[in-house]
Specification:
It is a single chain. This protein has helices spanning 11-24, 39-50, and strands spanning 2-8, 26-29, 32-36, 59-65. The protein is α+β, with helices and mostly antiparallel strands and 87 residues long.
Length: 87
C-alpha cells in the first residue's frame, strides 16, 4: 500500500519521530512522509511511534491508498528527496 504520513509533534519529540519515520518512508517535506509500505511494516511503524508520542499533545495522520491508479504527484519548487532514492 502507499501511505502519506503527516505529523504535528511537540518540538522535544520531533527528532525521534523523524528518525523512526525515515526508517519506513520517504521524507518529502517538513512533517510529511510518503511511500510504499507493507501492512506488517506499517504496524511496526505505528508501534514505534506510539512509544514516542504523547496522545494528548501530538498528532499523526495516515492517508492510506490501496492503489496508485489515480495518484498524481506534483512538486513546485525544490524537492527535499526524490522518491527514486529509495533502496
Amino acid at each position: 500500500m502507499f501511505v502519506i504520513l503527516v505529523y504535528d509533534i511537540k518540538e522535544k519529540r520531533v527528532a525521534k519521530v523523524l528518525k523512526v519515520c525515515r526508517k519506513y518512508l520517504n521524507w518529502v517535506q517538513n512533517s510529511v512522509f510518503e511511500g510504499e509500505i507493507t501492512k506488517a511494516k506499517l504496524v511496526k511503524l505505528k508501534t514505534e511511534l506510539s512509544k514516542i508520542i504523547k496522545k494528548d499533545e501530538d498528532s499523526i495522520l495516515f492517508y492510506k491508498f490501496r492503489t496508485l491508479k489515480y495518484y498524481e504527484r506534483e512538486v513546485m519548487g525544490k524537492e527535499k528527496q526524490s522518491p527514486d532514492n529509495i533502496l
